[in-house]
Amino acid sequence: MIGGSRCSTDQNPSSDLTYRYRSVRSRCTLRSVIAARLDELGIALPPPFPPAGNYLACVVDGDLVHVGGHGPIAGANIVRGKVGTDLTLEQAQRAARMTALSILATVAAELGDLDRIERIVKVFGMVNCAPGFNQTPAVIDGCSDLLVEVFGDAGRHTRSAVGMAELPFNIAVEIELTARVRV
User: Fold this and answer.
1) Is the pLDDT of residue 28 over 70?
2) Model pTM?
3) Cα dist. 43→68, 164, 182 in Å?
4) Domain coordinates of the chain in residue numbers?
């Protein structure tokens, strides 16, 4: 390990340490930046949550990773209820942020590290809404804001945020994500 990241040094017989340092640094910079950013934000990813049915949590296809619907689940902590009656807008935003962390945990488990993410491409957010609640974009901002905090401009993405009459297990939000990855 070099500087806390999982990178290997070049097998260059040269004893020029500057060359070796630059080579290792160029391959490890993104990992170092993302790991440092997560630490700076005080973020520890939850354990990945297994799929609730006969499907995969995510699929890597070429240079894209498609992450199936995730909810606000971290261990035994699950945020349930309808936004607008059971939950406030602020509680729902925290649930969307929690869901983004669950998504990142799944992606990290699949890819080995978040350093392979080049760009977040698309977020599709579904909100379990009480009748009349129409602030779904503000709810999914909890997810979008976290992605930008962690990945900077590479975290900016296209997005849909829709209201649903029901979500599985009465979870407050469900979010899907597509990201471009280094192959």
Assistant:
1) no
2) 0.82
3) 22, 29, 23
4) 1-42, 58-181
Which amino acid does the sequence have at 67?
Answer: V
Sheet bearing 64-70, strands edge to edge: 58-61, 64-70, 173-181, 117-128, 158-164
Distance of CA 120 to the CA centre of its chain: 9
Whether residue 138 contacts residue 46, with contact meaning beta carbons closer than 8 Å, is answered with no
First to last CA, the chain: 21
* Spatial distance between the Cα atoms of 92 and 77, rounded to a whole number of angstroms: 14
| Local confidence band at 25 (pLDDT 50, 70, 90 cut-offs) | very low
CATH architecture of 58-181: 2-Layer Sandwich (3.30)
Q: What is the pLDDT of residue 35?
A: 75
Closest by Cα among 125, 123, 107 to 156: 123
Amino acid in position 23 = S
Question: Which helix H or strand E contains 177, and what residues bound it?
Answer: strand 173-181
Among residues 182, 58, 64, the alpha carbon closest in space to that of 116 is found at: 182
* Between residues 27 and 135, the one the model is more confident about: 135
Among 132, 135, 121, 123, which residue's Cα sits nearest to residue 160? 123
Amino acid in position 145: D
Angle at 112 between CA 179 and CA 69, to 5 degrees: 45
